[in-house]
Amino acid sequence: MPSPTAPAVGAALDVLRRVFGYDAFRGFQQEVIEHVAAGGDALVLMPTGGGKSLCYQIPALVRDGVAVVVSPLIALMQDQVDALTAVGARAGFLNSTQDPAARRAVEAAFLAGELDLLYLAPEALGTRSAQQLLDRGRISLFAIDEAHCVSQWGHDFRPDYLALSMLHERWPGVPRIALTATATSATRTEIATRLSLTDARHFVASFDRPNIQYRIVSKREPRKQLLALLRDEHPGDAGIVYCLSRASVDKTAEFLVANGIDALPYHAGLDATTRAANQQRFLRSDGLVMVATIAFGMGIDKPDVRFVAHLDLPKSVEGYYQETGRAGRDGLPSTAWLAYGLQDVVQQRKMIETSEGDLAHRRNLAAHLDAMLALCETVRCRRVQLLDYFGERLDSPCGNCDTCLDPPQSWDGTVAAQKLLSTVFRLDRERNQRFGAGQCVDILLGRRTDKVTQFGHDSLTVFGIGTELGEAEWRGVVRQLLAEGLLAVEGDYGTLALTDASAEVLGRRRTVMMRREPERPARTAKPRGA
Ligand code: ADP
Ligand code: ZN
């Protein structure tokens, strides 16, 4: 095989212009393409929308043989092949959804060298028949898309990806390029190790998405807050709304439709036909809102998604970054909006506590959640904090996030924290009873509810000692203490409990700075009952 050097460079630019119709490369596309076209291995980390596909598609067209693209996104293979066919490239795919005749036709084309690119699902590559097929053809390169799926700690882990290390053993001379939009250096190292990409050159792009405005608001009446966002700032825009559960996806979609918003649900509980139809409608129409679980979105290439809203807290910063990254691929101003509340923290801490898997696994989940909570509670620029998590420094605050635009006040919440922790301590001593945040707040505010009088909590010394704050502020205090690990939740009922670190606050050895709960923004929601 000739080793392409200088000629390949001109060829790459020529292909970019002639085949894809673009004038210039973006970012380090050209370097990657030259490196892979010349037979080198590469690990490419680029944010969503950065232009990863061309990094393997152009080498595929420049090099002799067929490029084998491993992708977990079976539902999108047809679209990818159609898009390539439309620009005159020869592409096909093999996956489990195909009928035997279509399959045989693609196999024949592959063997005859009549393809430039062949898309394969990772599970297919593990089969003897696929491996024998590949042995009989001429492979120009392997592209491993969504390479973070090999990471066992990640949220998209696919066991089939682990087997991809065999590519190097079985076809040692074939260059490999792994691509992902997941950015932490831990994930990067894991990908390189698990895929045996030890000699690969790493190409790491900036993960900043300057056109996305990050906003994290405190959750009150989430659906109404969402509706206000859509009506005030994104009327008629396409967007994605993420919810944790299928039930809340359905309810939220119904709610939006009832309020005149064109919305569709998407989750794994819907049958495959409905899911595919909803996804197609989203991709093809202008102003549709997709309400979905995180099952939706990986690999979706819709440039004009104007907002991504989260009604529930993502489990990790990686997940948050990936999901919000689906907004604004076209570079135009877009919104990433998250409503976050006490219940999110309680629920996720509980889920981790009761999750299957060993201690190491639960610790890992907890560490991911803590980073996400820190992003929610920060008084710093969100973008600075977000990029910092990915090991990237911004020199100054971004000017395009909620903390930059509307700087939050921080306040010394040490005394409030002590009052709350004392209340939890008092309740903790009633060992048979279980009380959550609601009861604590009622006691602090001196409310004689049925449940307060029933248990005689109005005679506790802490009864009514917290009237200087309102209910929302107290809930904010609970949330921030939970977020910082100064308070814990236990059991099925969200019972509050002290942690080892609580003692430092109670003993005045630690001050607690808190983010002030903003006044309810006038346009976000009308007062209850109005
Ligand atoms: P990723 O896979 O990194 O999310 P894609 O490869 O899907 O991103 O590219 C995102 C969009 O940018 C696509 O619409 C693609 O056609 C476009 N694009 C990629 N590279 C260029 C370029 N050099 N010039 C103009 N548009 C580009
Ligand atoms: Zn900012």
UniProtKB/TrEMBL annotation:
It holds the Pfam family Helicase_C. Its EC number is 5.6.2.4. One of its GO terms (molecular function) is 3'-5' DNA helicase activity. InterPro entries: DEAD/DEAH_box_helicase_dom, DNA_helicase_ATP-dep_RecQ, DNA_helicase_ATP-dep_RecQ_bac, Helicase_ATP-bd, Helicase_C-like, HRDC-like_sf, HRDC_dom, HRDC_dom_sf. Keywords: ATP-binding, DNA damage, DNA recombination, DNA repair, DNA-binding, Helicase, Hydrolase, Isomerase, Metal-binding, Nucleotide-binding, Zinc. It is an enzyme of class 5 (isomerase). It comes from Micromonospora nigra. GO terms for biological process: DNA recombination; DNA repair; DNA replication; SOS response. Its cofactor is Zn(2+); Mg(2+). This is DNA helicase RecQ. It catalyses: Couples ATP hydrolysis with the unwinding of duplex DNA by translocating in the 3'-5' direction. GO terms for cellular component: bacterial nucleoid; cytoplasm; replisome. Belongs to the helicase family. RecQ subfamily. PANTHER family: ATP-DEPENDENT DNA HELICASE Q1 (PTHR13710:SF105), DNA HELICASE RECQ FAMILY MEMBER (PTHR13710).
